[in-house]
């Protein structure tokens, strides 16, 4: 069985809880023989760099303060994670190591790389021992015994042999990232962020099938998601673009990460150790993904011009300063971008051949396809001008454009650049599930509506799904001939296949439109969200699921920056959702929602005048297609109960179906049994209805079937769906048969309520309501 290499970055190991979470990932994702590569915990390498600097500056107090800080951090991790015996041993090992560091510092014999190596040595040891404590066969390995360099070059053959010899047992190896040794057994590093590179190197040496880079974001985004909330997570990016991003210093991957994968089929993915269910970003070979757009930012850099550069010199310099250096040529002159704190070291090496052109620069690079880059560069220059950001240096290459300034590119400016440069020309893949009455009309309307949306956004219907068959075409289905395509190309439907095909879609955005009435389909929502799909539901099941499940769904959507619209699940196309949202946005507090939210029950109650029996009216409605196949589904009131719950949740109430009292519009006994049995007992329904009808008349009222939700002063909620006797003059009494009505009272609409009324069912209006959701989704994504 092919092995897998998993790499956990410092951000995944920043606390004892994170080690525990990583251990859980290892337990569920790794098998004996796999390798785990770890970085130093949290910001340990940065602290070790500071320790080195204080050593160089002979800052004795600073040195011991920083050492104490490191000791406390490590000791804290050890104490939180281990039982008494291993704890004692690990603390004593740590103590010995810190004493050796102190001694070397006193004797002036510290070595930079050997000092920095401690971060990874500690984290590999802690994770290895912690996994052992959990009963997992794990062993920690010092990568200096695996990776040897000679004059800066890795000795691949020798390293491969070392790995074969030393990683041959059926245990999980926890290998230190970042570090290696030279032929004289001195410690060397692979450069800052180098653990990604360690992971792919190791994967190459052990012939692994895949590398997973586990980090603190869900994958590779269009820009740093910590700075821009609307950053888009890409499902796939090609190796060349990932490599370019890395060369430009983006931290998500180290610059050399991809080189060991060249000419191999080793898969590479970036995924989140904080959100294990989220789909990763796959870094795929050329041709397997469209070119994407990115903005990557720079902080505190110096730009230097170099007269002459020898071959390999930049990589030596980058090795020296432990940081990637971006190199480019413009107008025949060679430039380097150097982290400001390392400029003096670089200038020392390049003495007499290099000058600082600009210092203390911030900035960004736009990465895009070569066809787009010139236009994006011009647009970026305009935007910066509008934002009063003065560009100090600008360079355009084949697939990126670089802007350097001495002003901070804060999140606001970055968000504007991102919206205008990256968010343009994005594609939205639409999956339509459910081609019943409403679904078919929706698809028909799509021809016209998608063309309209395409003026703003590239919208493509990529899948049509029925319960038994589906048509999936990643490049888009021709909407005018879909029936033909369906005949020729549709396949058997399965949930697994749908999820898999959605996972393979290479689109910036995806939406699944659920026009099914299937509870089983709504059960797929968490998986669809894991595939980064926005959701549009006409289906009511998810919106009325158990609170815990529903809340988790909402949280999952929030975490992934995804939207869920369900306009038509209540009142079809009527804008009840807008009305409720708008009142709340404007600071109002909704106290009552009353009404009739079922077209069928509205028609039945409003049409009944005693001239015929209620059951014959029900059968008439059934014949006209106004009811569910079994009309008792409507008479049970459950559909209205679900709708009332959706409205309740929309106004921020945490209710469940069970919190809404339900009184069916039929005697309880008739709810059981077959439809035929019901028919033989239909008189019982007539007697029941007649009694209610007469009681209402006696009180000079009208019988209606209503939902009502009252939020009392105390905050308590009274919610009921059932028979109500309403005033003859009320809006509910005078409802056009078949219409829905929503009567909303709020602090501002207290005496004279806000009333929304109109057809609350019907395929055209419902399909149009779903188009409204799609339209608003596009507006939100734009
Ligand atoms: P690790 O500790 O796992 O190696 P790093 O901190 O080195 O992680 O890199 C991950 C960080 O990269 C993220 O937390 C994020 O802030 C930053 N980042 C910058 N640009 C991007 C991007 N385009 N996509 C994802 N993350 C990015
Ligand atoms: N710990 C090292 C660093 O901080 C290596 C890595 O994180 O990949 O640069
Ligand atoms: Mg990193």
Automatic annotation (TrEMBL):
Annotated source species: Pseudoalteromonas holothuriae
Cross-referenced InterPro entries: AceGlu_kinase-like_sf (IPR036393), AK-HD (IPR049638), Asp/Glu/Uridylate_kinase (IPR001048), Asp/hSer_DH_NAD-bd (IPR005106), AsparK_Bifunc_asparK/hSer_DH (IPR042199), Aspartate_kinase_CS (IPR018042), Bifunc_Aspkin/hSer_DH (IPR011147), HDH_cat (IPR001342)
Pathway assignment: Amino-acid biosynthesis; L-threonine biosynthesis; L-threonine from L-aspartate: step 1/5; Amino-acid biosynthesis; L-methionine biosynthesis via de novo pathway; L-homoserine from L-aspartate: step 3/3; Amino-acid biosynthesis; L-lysine biosynthesis via DAP pathway; (S)-tetrahydrodipicolinate from L-aspartate: step 1/4; Amino-acid biosynthesis; L-methionine biosynthesis via de novo pathway; L-homoserine from L-aspartate: step 1/3
Catalytic reaction equation(s): L-aspartate + ATP = 4-phospho-L-aspartate + ADP; L-homoserine + NAD(+) = L-aspartate 4-semialdehyde + NADH + H(+); L-homoserine + NADP(+) = L-aspartate 4-semialdehyde + NADPH + H(+)
Keyword annotations of the record: Amino-acid biosynthesis, ATP-binding, Kinase, Methionine biosynthesis, NADP, Nucleotide-binding, Oxidoreductase, Threonine biosynthesis, Transferase
Family to which this protein belongs: In the N-terminal section; belongs to the aspartokinase family. In the C-terminal section; belongs to the homoserine dehydrogenase family.
UniProt keyword Nucleotide-binding present: yes
GO MF term list: aspartate kinase activity; ATP binding; homoserine dehydrogenase activity; NADP binding
Cofactor (UniProt): a metal cation
Biological process annotations from GO: homoserine biosynthetic process; lysine biosynthetic process via diaminopimelate; methionine biosynthetic process; threonine biosynthetic process
Enzyme nomenclature, EC number: 2.7.2.4, 1.1.1.3
Homoserine dehydrogenase catalytic domain location: 576-774
Pfam families membership: AA_kinase, Homoserine_dh, NAD_binding_3
Statement: the UniProt record of this protein carries the keyword Cytoplasm: no
Domain (Aspartate/homoserine dehydrogenase NAD-binding): residue spans on this chain: 434-561
Gene: metL
Subunit structure: Homotetramer.
Protein name per its UniProtKB record: Bifunctional aspartokinase/homoserine dehydrogenase
Residue ranges of every copy of the Aspartate/glutamate/uridylate kinase domain listed in the record: 3-271
Domain of life: Bacteria
């Amino acid at each position: 069985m092919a092995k897998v290499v998993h790499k956990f970055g410092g951000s995944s190991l920043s606390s004892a809880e994170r080690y525990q979470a990583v251990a859980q990932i290892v337990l569920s994702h790794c098998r004996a023989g796999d390798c785990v590569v770890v970085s130093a915990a949290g910001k340990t390498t940065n602290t070790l760099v500071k320790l080195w600097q204080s050593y160089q500056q002979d800052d004795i107090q600073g040195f011991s303060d920083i050492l104490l800080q490191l000791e406390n951090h490590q000791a804290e991790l050890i104490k939180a994670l281990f039982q008494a015996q291993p704890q004692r041993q690990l603390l004593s090992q740590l103590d010995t190591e810190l004493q050796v560091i102190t001694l070397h510092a006193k004797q002036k014999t510290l070595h930079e790389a050997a000092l920095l190596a401690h971060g990874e040595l500690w984290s590999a040891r802690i994770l290895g021992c912690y996994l052992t404590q959990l009963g997992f066969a794990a062993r920690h390995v010092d990568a200096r015994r695996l990776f040897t360099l000679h004059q800066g070059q890795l000795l691949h053959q020798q390293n491969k042999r070392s790995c074969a010899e030393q990683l041959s047992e059926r245990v999980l190896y926890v290998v230190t990232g970042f570090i290696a040794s030279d032929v004289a057994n001195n410690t060397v590093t692979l450069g800052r962020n180098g653990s990604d590179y360690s992971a792919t190197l190791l994967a190459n040496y052990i012939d692994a099938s895949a590398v997973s880079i586990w980090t603190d974001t869900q994958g590779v985004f269009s820009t740093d998601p910590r700075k821009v909330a609307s950053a888009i997570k890409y499902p796939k990016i090609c190796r060349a673009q990932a490599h370019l991003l890395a060369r430009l210093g983006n931290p998500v991957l180290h610059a050399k990460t991809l080189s060991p994968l060249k000419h191999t089929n080793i898969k590479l993915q970036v995924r989140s150790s904080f959100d294990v269910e989220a789909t990763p970003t796959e870094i795929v070979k050329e041709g397997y993904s469209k070119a994407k757009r990115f903005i990557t930012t720079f902080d505190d850099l110096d730009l230097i011009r170099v007269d002459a550069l020898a071959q390999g010199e930049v990589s030596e310099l980058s090795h020296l300063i432990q940081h990637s250096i971006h190199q480019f040529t413009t107008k025949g002159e060679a430039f380097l971008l150097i982290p400001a704190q390392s400029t003096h070291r670089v200038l020392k090496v390049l003495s007499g051949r290099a000058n600082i052109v600009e210092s203390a620069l911030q900035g960004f690079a736009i990465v895009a396809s070569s066809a787009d880059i010139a236009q994006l560069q011009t647009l970026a220059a305009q935007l910066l001008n509008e934002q009063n950001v003065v560009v100090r240096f600008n360079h355009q290459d084949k697939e990126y454009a670089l802007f350097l300034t001495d002003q901070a590119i804060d999140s606001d400016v970055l968000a504007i650049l991102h919206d205008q440069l990256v968010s343009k020309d994005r594609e939205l893949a639409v999956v339509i599930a459910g081609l019943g009455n409403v679904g078919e009309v929706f698809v028909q309307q799509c021809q016209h509506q998608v063309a309209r949306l395409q003026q703003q956004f590239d919208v493509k219907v990529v899948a049509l799904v029925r319960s038994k068959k589906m048509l999936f075409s990643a490049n888009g289905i021709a909407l005018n001939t879909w029936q033909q395509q369906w005949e020729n190309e549709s396949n058997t439907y399965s949930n697994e296949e749908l999820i898999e095909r959605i996972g393979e879609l290479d689109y910036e955005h995806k939406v699944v439109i659920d026009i099914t009435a299937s509870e089983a389909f709504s059960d797929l929502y968490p998986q669809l969200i894991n595939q980064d799909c926005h959701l549009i539901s006409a289906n009511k099941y998810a919106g009325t699921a158990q609170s815990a499940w529903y809340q988790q769904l909402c949280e999952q959507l929030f975490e992934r920056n995804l939207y869920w619209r369900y306009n038509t699940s209540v009142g079809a196309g009527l804008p009840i959702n807008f009305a409720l949202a708008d009142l709340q946005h404007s600071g109002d507090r909704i106290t009552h929602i009353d009404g009739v939210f079922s077209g069928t029950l509205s028609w039945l109650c409003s049409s009944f005048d005693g001239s015929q029996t209620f059951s014959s009216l029900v059968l008439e409605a059934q014949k006209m297609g106004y009811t569910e196949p079994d009309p008792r589904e409507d008479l049970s009131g459950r559909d209205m109960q679900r709708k009332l719950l959706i409205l309740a949740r929309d106004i921020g109430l945490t209710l469940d179906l069970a919190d809404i009292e339900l009184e069916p519009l039929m005697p309880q006994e008739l709810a059981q049994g077959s439809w035929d049995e019901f028919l033989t007992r239909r008189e019982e329904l007539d007697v029941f209805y007649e009694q209610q009808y007469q009681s209402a008349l006696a009180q000079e009222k009208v019988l209606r079937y209503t939902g009502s939700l009252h939020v009392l002063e105390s905050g308590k909620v009274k919610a009921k769906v059932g028979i109500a006797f309403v005033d003859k003059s009320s809006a509910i009494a005078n409802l056009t048969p078949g219409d829905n009505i929503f009567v909303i009272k709020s602090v501002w609409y207290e005496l004279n309520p806000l009333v929304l009324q109109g057809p609350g069912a019907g395929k055209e209006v419902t399909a149009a309501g779903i188009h409204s959701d799609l339209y608003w989704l596009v507006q939100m994504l734009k």
